[in-house]
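All the exercises in this workshop are built on plain-text protein records. There is nothing in a record beyond a sequence line and a structure line. A learned vocabulary of local backbone shapes supplies the integers on the structure line. The question running through the whole workshop is how a given chain folds. Here is such a record, shown just as it appears in the course material:

***
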Amino acid sequence: MTRYVAAIDQGTSSSRCILFDRDGGVAGTGQREHAQVHPRAGWVEHDPLEIVANVRAVVDEAMAAAGASAADVAAVGITNQRETTVLWDRPTGEPVHNAIVWQDTRTASLVAELADGDLDRLRAITGLPLSTYFSGPKARWLLDADPSLRARAEAGEVLFGTIDSWLVWCLTGGPQGGVHVTDVTNASRTLLMDLGTLDWSNEALELIGIPRAMLPEIRSSSEVYGEIHVGTALDGLPLAGILGDQQAALFGQACFTPGEAKNTYGTGCFLLVNTGAEPVASQELLTTVAYRLGDGPPAYALEGSIAVAGAGVRWLRDQLGVIDSADEVEALAASVPDSGDVYVVPAFSGLFAPRWRDDARGTIVGITAFTTKAHIARAMLEATAWQTREVLDAVRSAAGGGIDCDELKVDGGMTVDELLMQFQADVLGVPTIRPQVAETTALGAAYAAGLATGFWTSPDDVRANWHEARRWEPQMDGDEVERRYARWREAVERSLGWAR
């Protein structure tokens, strides 16, 4: 009798495999970091072959940790860093270049050229603004960087994919019969998919210059795509779930009803709100697919993507030396009662939602002779909460009062910081809730795979498995929140227009 579902969680900094039991509990884990490659300022790359090697290793580590064999596992799901882009040679399976990571800004001039003064020219189709964030322009840059690739791409000899497609292709055989697919959540982050038809948009492909022949087939988030054949302890098992990392966290948090929301605090910060069966348009947020189960209708979401959250804490550690380890930041920030009217806007490579300004740069305002490193550390933590407030305000505006979030489910590494979680509840004016199972991203991918193979029977099983671990209620005076919020927005205005 099968006891587990395995989830491969391929993230920005590491790859993990986690085995979950029927109650959603963790039975075994493996994790390995991969190199962050920075060829130039603003460029961020990963080695796709290193990622595959690490995935193979962590799969075996997780199985060994759980004392499991393939007979104990019902299915395998994948969740992944979303917009990161890989091009590879179909006959050999070799990447033609390092993966270009979602944070990378090398396509700024190309995006400006494609926009021709209108960054929203594809928004009605794709739900997204033209931005360096998304995969389509990254793939175009790779095709332009090596003119010999385009003809081969048009012939289907060079393949395009986000990390999920690359992993599925490699895990199901690679050059020997690998399956070239993606799911609707990842496809909705490329700037190439029509949100209404859930197929590649001819208009978007023509504008960005991407040959259809190189693209994966778009499938649902929960179905059997193929069997694993890559020389691991999971060989022979069905690969049956794919969700982009933030949508996986939404699913793992059991946010199935319109208005239910989650925020993931990782390298960046990503707030998603379920908006139901119809996409909700927004000029400030991203309209995206939340998930699609088999042949069922899709569910949509509004998303606010924040580029810097945990990355800001790492900056305090690695670049400024303010702390020696990330877990020291809460104690340092708590050593002062407030930020001393200091505000940090961590626009290291521009601002994402709701402003979408590539020309913004990091700013610290309000420094006086009274300011200490503790004030700056606290202001860095508070910046994550203020950016989340801006995103939630934009959700409420886009929904026209039709969707309101009366609580926020949270996950990710920064949720261990109780100072931040309390401040988040204060500035939003709604409870902030952390679940018992913190691995919600991997859990969402496991649920998608388990639902496709009958390990779980319906999303009701997912709801039944979700349990609250900690809740923070708003405590700060509302007038004080609004005063500080106004100051935050003043600080953001000072960050704009710096990069030219």
